[in-house]
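Structure ticket #2291
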Amino acid sequence: MSSDTIDAYAYACILQGDNLLVETENASEALNKVITLIAENVNMDSRPQKGCFGTYQTLRYCYLVGEGFCFVIGADERVQMRINMSFLEHVRRDFFDKFVHGGQKLHRGKYRKYLRAELEFFMTNKEADKLRGVLMEVEEVKEIMAENLKKAVERGEKLERLQEQTQQLEENAQEFHREARKLKAGSAANTIVAVLRAAAFAVMRAARKNRHVQNNPSVRNSFVSTFPVGRPPVSLLCILHINVRTQCG
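Resolution: structure written out below.
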């Protein structure tokens, strides 16, 4: 199909704000009004979005916006919407790769020829639908890969946090073990001191009683039969010995 035939029912352009960067043909006065309305009513700075602006003189106008740019196609109403959107996606990707992200300088005359050729292909070639299918599959694969990469990064972060928590638990367990040993040693020492004090008190008491017995013959005779004079009770020494061994052991 010739270029003249395309101009009869299809038109495409690229806008940046109110600035018309490139178009497939020099727009008529009526077409300029439509493009102006689109530029005034579509928010180009919003997140990427697409839609249909409406129909004017048998042409249905669809748009795709993103990163401050608006890609527009006006095509016959008989052209399916998926073809229009596929064309816009294709042009947007090429434009961004070359001029927005790629750093190339835009030559409007050359890009007009490219835009016209792509418009002709999508309007007339049956392979356009197949190309759209392939492009959709590529986008789906890219999304899946991005999601898998995100999950892998999240798993890595979780593993790193788990390792840090495990190491912290080990350090806490070692600290608890050290403190427990200190506490046990301190408790044993305190118990030994208490036992020794009790033993000393018992010995002193036994000594006082011994002196009392020696000073009182009647008491001495009854006491000697039970405990030898001058020694603490054997059962008390045994108890003291057992307590000391238990605490030291």
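Closing remark: The longest strand covers residues 49-56.
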